[in-house]
Amino acid sequence: MKLKDKVAIVTGAAAGIGLATARKFASEGAIVVLCDRSAEGVEREAFSLSASGHTAVARAVDVTDRAGVDAVVADLKRQFGRIDILVNNAGITQDARLQSMSEAQFDKVIDVNLKGVFNCTQAVVDTMLEQQRGVVLNASSVVGIYGNFGQTNYAASKFGVIGFTKTWARELGPKGIRVNAVCPGFIATDILSTMPDKVLEGFRNACWQRRLGEPGEIANVYAFLASDDASFVNGTAIEVSGGLSV
Ligand SMILES: NC(=O)c1ccc[n+]([C@@H]2O[C@H](COP(=O)([O-])OP(=O)(O)OC[C@H]3O[C@@H](n4cnc5c(N)ncnc54)[C@H](O)[C@@H]3O)[C@@H](O)[C@H]2O)c1
Description:
Order of helices and strands: EHEHEHEHEHHEHHE
Number of domains: 1
Radius of gyration: 17 Å
Bound molecules: nicotinamide-adenine-dinucleotide
């Protein structure tokens, strides 16, 4: 098992890629902390994972609530004594083309996707520094590399996450902490539910595997990056898109 007894926080773990990642990490032996603004989803999943012999706990927290994030991290430190892995996965979209995007839409997406990543990482970094060991994984997107129609706010947030990743890899790499980003292509989760069928068809056709990705295919990459198999992988943004950009 690649992640045996590692304490791993996954944000946005009630659905989609975060849920698949929590399940994958549990199957690799991690002690999984499922965090989400939706308490019900993470509590149900933590119960189900625990019932099948894994160690999993749920914490309801909004990543934009800094005091709430700090309280969860302090509580986890008391309970488990360490934090080995943070997967900054929680994210949202609020799409509109440039002319019609409201300030509220812009601010909300930046707040969750960018400041939320800052909040959670800053909350765990002292613990990882004390341990002289840790892994931070950030959810970026192909949209953070190439941009996308109607996603000014989202593209900026995901490009920003790559900036965090490269900066923190430099700051924290010498102290035993690896930081990497994953840039998924288009993955079949609720986040695509607002996209018209025609757009989804376009995503399938743009991918050289001619399909959407599955959440588990991103979870597998997070598990690799979180493990010692990736011990010399630091400061990178790995595209996992079925060859979208080829
Ligand atoms: N699905 C895709 O095609 C795709 C592609 C590239 C990147 N991503 C990124 O991957 C991550 C996961 O996406 P997904 O497709 O699984 O989305 P999803 O909508 O299926 O799940 C997102 C989860 O995050 C939670 N969440 C949202 N805001 C939160 C907040 N403020 N605090 C705590 N939890 C919050 C939601 O409750 C939900 O459980 C996101 O960062 C997304 O931008 C997704």
